[in-house]
Fold this sequence. Notes:
The structure is a homodimer.
Chain A: H1 11-39, H2 43-54, E1 59-61, H3 62-69, H4 73-85, E2 89-93, E3 101-105, H5 107-127, H6 134-152
Antiparallel strand pairs in A: 1-3, 2-3
Helix pairs in contact in A: 1-5, 2-5, 3-4
The structure holds a DNA duplex.
Amino acid sequence: MKEGPGSTMNQDRFQAWMNLLQAHAVITTRIENELETSCGLSLAEHQVLVRLAGSVERRFRMYDLADVLLLSKSGTTRLVDRLEKRGLVTRLLCEGDRRVVFAALSSAGERAVEEAHSILASAIERSFSRHLSDEDIATLRGSLRRLLEGNEAWADHRCSPSYPARAAPSRRAGSS
Amino acid sequence: MKEGPGSTMNQDRFQAWMNLLQAHAVITTRIENELETSCGLSLAEHQVLVRLAGSVERRFRMYDLADVLLLSKSGTTRLVDRLEKRGLVTRLLCEGDRRVVFAALSSAGERAVEEAHSILASAIERSFSRHLSDEDIATLRGSLRRLLEGNEAWADHRCSPSYPARAAPSRRAGSS
DNA sequence: CTCAGATAGTTGTCACGTCAACTACTGCCT
DNA sequence: AGGCAGTAGTTGACGTGACAACTATCTGAG
């Protein structure tokens, strides 16, 4: 009656949602601070580098980058701007389709992501993994994945009807 | 080797953390959109109203509000500014300690939080609860609470040594 | 009493991300 | 070919929150 939604939904479910918000806020703040002070990278910037490093061609179309980062197109533009200004990422034109711009990992970017690796790993360990058993992790991951799939399925910003047609995120070289 | 931290930590743990980030992003975006379009309230604004409504005295010191919202002092000031401008919250002076300002729920604020209640509940249901079993919820909540406690324990912005001394969030009337 | 240090809140300035409008390019349709 | 709808990316204006500096007040040591 005074704590929040209680009549139309289970109190536990509301609390679980609140806990998700709080845990996310606390954990990301801590991990981001550690990453920022050690490597000078924000979580978002690091995510870009990791995604690029994880891609076969070491590059991503801006569009696909926005998609995997769950970020707006303009947010992605500005994020890549910052990384490019710092020399960690390079923009490459696509010769097959001149509307397309690739964000590619520079060698400095590769070094940065490698350097961040162990720092981030230990930050995650301290703020996250450390507090959970293997079983907790497995269950948590299962629940989170189900949430993700349930919500990605419909109603998200991106995923226009043409999405399946875009095929692989990277194809056709940009500079070679 | 190319997906992210893999040598110093279990891959599953890194993935679980990634899933936490993604699930949070997707779910809060969806829920916030629904709340915003139906009630004109952001999630943060709603949180303020819920906290105030949940308080015994229907009021909170700015300081304590910042604390429970996991927000900076200035962020809280501006959040309350917006709500006050819209008439949902009133600032009250504390006569016992004139440094202190209370944020108090106005009657319009009470109506707003009641109105938002069912809308938010169904949004949470659709984007969150719906995808999880009772057992999932219980386990998830347990894990999240453990994460929260593990991280709140030390190293957070607030919680200066004087924290326990501040006692109850509200005491001494503000206007009566 | 008085002054130094701590505490509560607000304000200036900035970083980051959003939406909407814009440019540039592609590709279909006639 | 010409034109137009659709797509990729960038830019302008803005909202929100953070940090640091500031004001005002309280408290305790002398």
